[in-house]
# Entry
Amino acid sequence: AQSVTQLDSHVSVSEGTPVLLRCNYSSSYSPSLFWYVQHPNKGLQLLLKYTSAATLVKGINGFEAEFKKSETSFHLTKPSAHMSDAAEYFCVVSPRYTGKLIFGQGTTLQVKP
Amino acid sequence: EAGVAQSPRYKIIEKRQSVAFWCNPISGHATLYWYQQILGQGPKLLIQFQNNGVVDDSQLPKDRFSAERLKGVDSTLKIQPAKLEDSAVYLCASSGGFITGELFFGEGSRLTVL
# Structure
């Protein structure tokens, strides 16, 4: 069975400092992995996706994530946080060719001035 | 390109009442999903449609929830009778295909059951 664990429920950083949101996954087969972002009262938006091409994936707004099969991890990073990055972030695993998304519990990112 | 449309955005009802949510997916998207997001949790899949047919409804509480997708376009999710624990945001999403796995989400319908 596929599952995803987000290791931090809440992360707080200062504006201009790096962001690290951690995610581990469990999957019997090579999955597709995603990060979605949800701003308050807004719909979920795709940040980036991994589908077995390059292991370092670049997304929108300066975010990137690295797929590490040996560690079953897909951590999300950004070199410098901006106030507008404050939101809820979801790590998502999708079994190949099913179209299903399995969400983690989410990490709330707080960015302090 | 128009996004996924959902209505109503907010609904407050009393327990044992009924409610219906409507979703219009992105034009041409064959796959439509309903997710339930309880406060503080990640979204949970309720039902997945491929055109008119149901692909997965294993987590849909069928004693009170029902969903349909007539003509393979719009969809309606109904809850009858509602319970307190049904308070959540109901998200509709659509996808052009299984290959990419990317879903496009609406802004959600927030249900409060008193």
